[in-house]
Amino acid sequence: MKNELLMEGDRIALDHYARETEGITVEIGTYLGGSAKILAEGSKKVYCIDVFEDIELIKNKDAKKECKDIWKDKGVTYKDIKAKLEGEYENIEVIKGESEQVAKEWKKEQVDLIFIDGDHTYEGVKTDFECWFPHLRKGAIVLFHDSNYKPIQKFAMELTKDKRVKVLGLPQNSLIVVFKKR
Ligand SMILES: C[S@@+](CC[C@H](N)C(=O)[O-])C[C@H]1O[C@@H](n2cnc3c(N)ncnc32)[C@H](O)[C@@H]1O
């Protein structure tokens, strides 16, 4: 997998929503930090959550398998990525942990913007949405990456009928699906 996982439209959308909310952002799935840097430019604070090289923390076995491939032979660890991102951006905090577990223990601020780009299975995106939903303030923006993945499409379609959120759609030329908490 390439280090660069975002299309130009994704970059524009991340930048737009970070600047529009200009608040507390949570990113699920940081990997090497490509999207985190864009979010950091427009947010007050970005919490970057990932299991990093410790993929055994991922519960879903299909997601674990996929992530094993992306971390294999990467030669960088959580410590390297944390040092680099926090060194470059004083508004980034990198947290090593499994998304659902981190959400359960979350005592930090309410969230204005969440970018979900971790476990790409149906169960994974659904779990990420449900476990972070209570931490979102009213009006918060929820972004899902990789709308071209079948499991993400399936969950996004379900959410379009969910009264708790309003669908804002897909930004142009982007793989990001956007919802707003009512
Ligand atoms: C596609 S990559 C993220 C790419 C990054 N957002 C970017 O655009 O540069 C997915 C990441 O999610 C992480 N991940 C997968 N499942 C997770 C989980 N349940 N909890 C925390 N991190 C997870 C993987 O370790 C991997 O680094």
Textual characterization of the structure:
- There is one protein chain.
- The protein is of the alpha/beta class and 182 residues long.
- The chain has one domain: Rossmann fold (3-Layer(aba) Sandwich).
- 40% of the residues lie in helices and 23% in strands.
- It contains 7 helices and 7 strands, in the order αβαβααβαβαβαββ.
- The chain has a 7-stranded mixed sheet, sandwiched between helices.
- Strand 1 (24-28), helix 2 and strand 2 (45-50) form a beta-alpha-beta unit.
- 41% of the residues are buried.
- Residues 5-6, 29-31, 34-35, 49-51, 58, 63, 67, 98-99, 117-119 line the site of S-adenosylmethionine.
Strand percentage lies at: 15-25%
**Total strand segments:** 7
Mind summarizing the main beta sheet? 7 strands, mixed
Low-confidence stretches: none
Query: Which fold name corresponds to the CATH topology?
Result: Rossmann fold
Summarize the structure.
This protein is of the alpha/beta class and 182 residues long. It contains seven helices and seven strands; from the N terminus they run αβαβααβαβαβαββ. The chain has a single domain (8-181), classed as Vaccinia Virus protein VP39 (Rossmann fold, 3-Layer(aba) Sandwich).
